[in-house]
Design goal:
The longest helix has 19 residues, at about 85-105. The protein is built from four helices and six strands, in the order βββαβαβααβ. It is globular, with a radius of gyration of 17 Å. The mean pLDDT is about 90. Helices cover about 30% and strands about 15% of the residues. Strand 3 (about 40-45), helix 1 and strand 4 form a beta-alpha-beta unit. The chain has two domains: about 1-35, no CATH class; about 35-150, Ribosomal Protein S8, Chain: A, domain 1. The chain binds zinc ion. Zinc ion (ZN) binds near residues 11, 12, 23, 26 and 28.
Length: about 150
Amino acid sequence: MVKRETKDCETCGNPIPAQAFTCHFCDASQSVENFPKTRERVIRSNLEAGLPTVAQALERLERDLREARACEAKVVRVIHGYGSSGRGGKIRDAVRRELGRKLARGEVKDVTPGENYSSTTNAGRDHLSRFKELKTTERSDTHNPGLTIVEM
Ligand SMILES: [Zn+2]
């Protein structure tokens, strides 16, 4: 998601990945202020790659949103796939339920299902005007049921 770099553990000083929340040498947690900030305001979370189980997809969502918050991305395009039956549909349902809970708890600002997203809907127009980067994927994102757009 962000460039591979290392940082020194705040506790033991060993080199650890710049995106690490904990040190794999001493288990000490690292402060979020030292997390590398992304230059991209809009990032992608691909929950489809490698055909994960529903549990794995939810773990990946959790990790990607935590990373998005730490690197101060503003929008996450969550790619979860779709399907009325089978794995794709189950992942989508589970991911949307979880995002709904996060929205209710105030952990994310906005959740827009891909099928409601286009330059002619209020949500789509609002996102496209505030985040010009979304224009590069506007064609594939429009009315795409395999996608959910999350504003952090
Ligand atoms: Zn350490």
